[in-house]
Amino acid sequence: MASRNFPEMPTPSSLLSAYASMSTSIMLFRTMFDQFFPRHLRRYVVDAVRFYWKPKSSKLTLVFDEKDGMSSNHMFDAAEAYLCTRINPDSDRLRITKNVKENHINIKFAESEEIVDSFEGISLTWKYVRQHAQQRSGGGGDDFGHGGGKSSSGGGFTPERKYIELKFDKKHKEIIISAYLPSVIKKFQELENQKKVVKLHNLQSYGGGPGGYKESVNLDHPSTFETLAMDPVMKKAIIDDLDLFLTRKDFYKKVGKAWKRGYLLYGPPGTGKSSLIAAIANYLKFDIYDLQLMNVGSDSSLKKLMLRTSNRSILVIEDIDCSIQLPDRKGTAPVKFSDGRSVRDSQFSLSGLLNFIDGLWSCCGDERIIIFTTNHKERLDPALLRPGRMDVHIHMSYLTIDGFKTLAANYLNIYDHHRRFREIKELINCTKVTPAEVAEELMKSDNVEIVLEGLVKFLKRKRLRDDATKEGIDNGDDEVHEDKRAKTVSLIQ
Ligand SMILES: Nc1ncnc2c1ncn2[C@@H]1O[C@H](COP(=O)(O)OP(=O)(O)OP(=O)(O)O)[C@@H](O)[C@H]1O
Q1: Ligand 1 centre from 288 Cα, in Å?
Q2: Would you list the DSSP string of 102-155?
């Protein structure tokens, strides 16, 4: 039988001698390296060797530094906010933060934690890194185990560095940069929008002392589209119009128009014009600038006030028919203020106001909404009503059945039916009652039965008064005819 040839096994003594000679070579090489290269050059040599000899990785790491020079890095903020929405349910560590002004706590992912995300089937790993000062200046050393170069005391102060890393397969670089990162930014913007506190700025006459021309408070108006008593079709049309407006940046650019939308709200007092403005602001999270025209003396002060408004905001001019009597576009008639003052030399004119809306914002305003309100549309200058000036005319009318249902849900928590509703509906159908009047009645007691009984009595009294007014119509009272029409027509043009 032929014997098999096994390779000869090294003996322990030959292994030991090989190890000894290798250690000696390394020691020799290290001593030569230290002798040839002064201490401050060693790091560069090591880096150069590493650069050429490093095995090529298939992974790409993107680094989002907290700071970009002196300013903060928007991409870091976006990534940090985005990752809050991707926190792993079984994370071991989380960071908790809360600003004094915030009324909620923020849960963020902690140092060294990793979050795995996926985008179009690509797996990505996020990591939050915090490099402390000692780690950066003292912890380095060189690759041969020489303990750190500069100590933190001797090397000067190096600020802490925070950054977020994103690691993924190199071959997906294009799609991550062109699609994934923009989606992270978009998510961040949505989150910021949710957090935004809507402000109400009071635009006062320019020159009212330091800080005197502009005051702002948080808009705590609770009105939303859900709480607004309004024809549901009209409500939806307004929301759709706002949504469309927001998405049309490129469209406005293409057609060469300022990215703005004008709304004219008209209707009797107490029908919810101010409530609708607050609902729009709360929906869009846009600040409101309340402009009192009677405080504006000239085109130039109007311009100064306008320049103090920000993008993504709503400029509101309430009761435009009575705060000022605007001259026609030729400027022939004098400007008259409601307090009796007038400016004959036309320092401030309707053409000035309209020019600012169309002109000024076309060069330096984005996502602007302007809202005029009036109780008397028929008294407005036709120049303000002509197509292109106010894009949408919204008639806020007296209370309808649908509107009443909204109020009953808001104020009494009645979401379906109540035995009194039939009678109330009949009364509402033949009475001119505003949502404000009914809202007041609904607040009179906590007892639903008492409140609805009171409302029925109130509506009956109203109807009696309406009947008496009707006789006034027969005597030629045109204004009441107009109001009667307003009751039945609610439209968006
Ligand atoms: N459509 C509505 N939906 C819900 N509540 C309303 C509505 N209209 C009025 N209200 C209630 O009446 C109050 C006054 O209404 P609001 O100030 O919005 O009316 P307005 O039309 O702006 O009145 P004015 O023309 O006098 O300024 C609101 O605070 C709200 O409580």
Answers
A1: 17
A2: -SS-EEEEPTT-EEEEEETTEEEEEEEEEE-HHHHHTS---TT----SS-TTTS
Around ligand 1, the residues with Cβ closer than 6 Å are: 227-230, 269-275, 375, 396, 435-436, 439
Q: 284 and 182: one domain?
A: no
The pTM score is: 0.66
Q: Are residues 223 and 184 both part of a single domain? A: no
Query: What ipTM does this complex have?
Result: 0.97
CA distance linking residue 447 with residue 430, whole number of Å:
26
Model confidence over 91-104: pLDDT tens digits?
Answer: 788 888 887 767 77
Residue 18 domain-assigned (yes or no): no
Residue range of the domain that includes 148: 55-195
Q: Which of 265, 271, 443 has most ligand 1 atoms within 8 Å of its beta carbon, as the pocket-test mutant?
A: 271
**Number of separate domains in the chain:** 3
Contact (CB, 8 A) for 89 and 97: no
**Which atom of ligand 1 lies nearest, measured to the CA of 267?**
21
Q: For ligand 1, atom 29, which residue shows the shortest CA distance?
A: 275
Q: What angle do CA 456, 462, 465 make, to 5 degrees?
A: 150
Backbone Cα Rg of the chain: 36
